[in-house]
Specification:
With 209 residues, this protein is mostly helical. The chain is 82% helix and 3% strand. The chain is built from eight helices and two strands. The protein is elongated and about 70 Å long.
């Protein structure tokens, strides 16, 4: 496993999470925190997290024709924060970008990115916005275990599959896991308190009206 590739992946995980923090101050993002189901909010966040997934892919390092990236992080974060529709939509955007890039992991990488968005959406329903560190680690582990498994199953010859899993898949798994830990910090320090503040403000306005 190349240390430089791993460091690059971790840095991009930081960039993705900090980008989410930056846009958390926008109106469309805040309305999603309040679960306001408006088409424009959905489209804004699908596009936003989809672009972050593409960014994670486009800035990745190359190994054996595979892009070592954190493209799975943004769709999973989208699902956790904004629900299954946004998570799956972002996953499709990031997954299709990866698909058209081609490479030995064309199908395994595409499937995992879409699955990551769905998994984040499932967590949104299951956890009701209460993301713990244990859940963050578990979700990252499930998504990346699937990716490694699909590489081994779908890529041929087997020697290439094992090589890609160890030298491309493992750095991706570590980087996405780091990103999920940072997302957990973000939800605890920014998103959950902001959701509670907005709900209290909304309740106050309703009581005055």
């Amino acid at each position: 496993m190349d240390v430089e590739t791993l460091v690059r992946g971790v840095v991009m995980s930081v960039v993705v999470v900090m980008s989410i923090y930056a846009v958390s101050f926008t109106r469309s993002f805040r309305e999603v925190l309040l679960d306001r189901r408006r088409i424009r909010n959905y489209l804004f966040n699908i596009a936003l997290f989809g672009l972050l997934s593409i960014l994670g892919e486009a800035t990745g390092a190359s190994y054996g024709g595979v892009t070592v990236s954190v493209r799975d992080l943004a769709p999973m974060a989208a699902g956790i924060i904004a629900g299954p529709f946004v998570g799956l939509g972002a996953g499709v955007i990031g997954g299709m970008f990866h698909f058209f890039e081609g490479g030995p992991d064309q199908f395994s990488g595409t499937a995992t990115t879409i699955f990551a968005g769905w998994l984040g959406g499932w967590a949104y329903i299951r956890l009701q916005g209460d993301l713990s560190l244990a859940w963050a680690l578990a979700l990252a582990t499930i998504a990346q275990a699937l990716h490694l498994s699909l590489i081994v199953v779908l890529v041929r010859p087997t020697d290439l599959a094992v090589d890609l899993a160890l030298n491309a898949g493992v750095p991706m798994a570590v980087s996405v896991t780091v990103g999920m830990v940072l997302l957990w910090v973000l939800t605890r320090q920014r998103l959950s308190p902001e959701r509670q503040r907005l709900e209290l403000e909304l309740d106050r306005l309703r009581s005055q009206g």
